[in-house]
Amino acid sequence: MNEPTEQQEPKQEPDAPTLFDQKPGVDWLLAFLVGWAEQGLTMGVTVTVEGTVITGEIIGGREYFQAIASIMRQANYQGTSQEQNFGTVVGDAIEGFKQIYPEKQPEDYVAQPGYLHLKNAKFLLGDKLTTKGAPWRIDLAKISAFTFGTLTTS
User: Fold this and answer.
1) Per-residue pLDDT of the chain (154 residues; tens, 9 = 90+)
2) Which of 8, 89, 98, 114 is spaced 20 to 30 A from 38 at the CA atom?
3) All structural domains of the chain with their residue ranges
4) What is the pTM of this model?
5) CA distance 35 to 101
6) Domain at 23-59+115-154: CATH architecture
């Protein structure tokens, strides 16, 4: 019987990711807040994305896709001979994407999100905010700055 000449080291499991192990360009504190949003936290935040200031309320991905689905269900598609309502079909498909975001995270969950979802998002244009808020999805790696709370103009 051949004996191994060197002692083999046991295989080590890779270290579990921590909150500080984010994708390049993603702020760990903002990722932390997004993780809480996936659990139901809603709070105001203002971010800068490629020079544009956006303000709104953080929401989870499930709520974001429900909001987008609701908007799409109101859409009409001109020029189709099909009897199906285009908005309903697309809205239902988009709402299905919420399944990407579990309703309950495991106990050892570490947030490593790719996107920030906002509701009532508004843009700062000069010294004025756009008047109508909307759901918005922002690549976390594109956010160069953020602060807590939403902007208001007087």
Assistant:
1) 555 556 666 555 567 676 677 777 888 899 889 988 988 889 999 999 999 999 999 999 989 999 999 988 887 766 655 555 778 888 888 888 887 777 776 666 655 688 999 999 999 988 888 878 889 999 999 999 999 999 887 6
2) 89
3) 23-59+115-154, 61-100
4) 0.76
5) 11
6) Roll (2.30)
Contact in structure between 23 and 116 (CB atoms under 8 Å): no
> In the numeric block, which tokens belong to residue 143?
């956010």
- The answer to whether 115 and 138 have CB atoms below 8 angstroms apart is yes
Q: Which two tokens stand for residue 118?
A: 């906002």
User: What's the length of the chain?
Assistant: 154
Tell me the three state secondary structure of residue 106: coil
Residue type, 114: G
Cα separation, 77 vs 125, whole angstroms: 31
What are the beta bridge partners of residue 43?
58
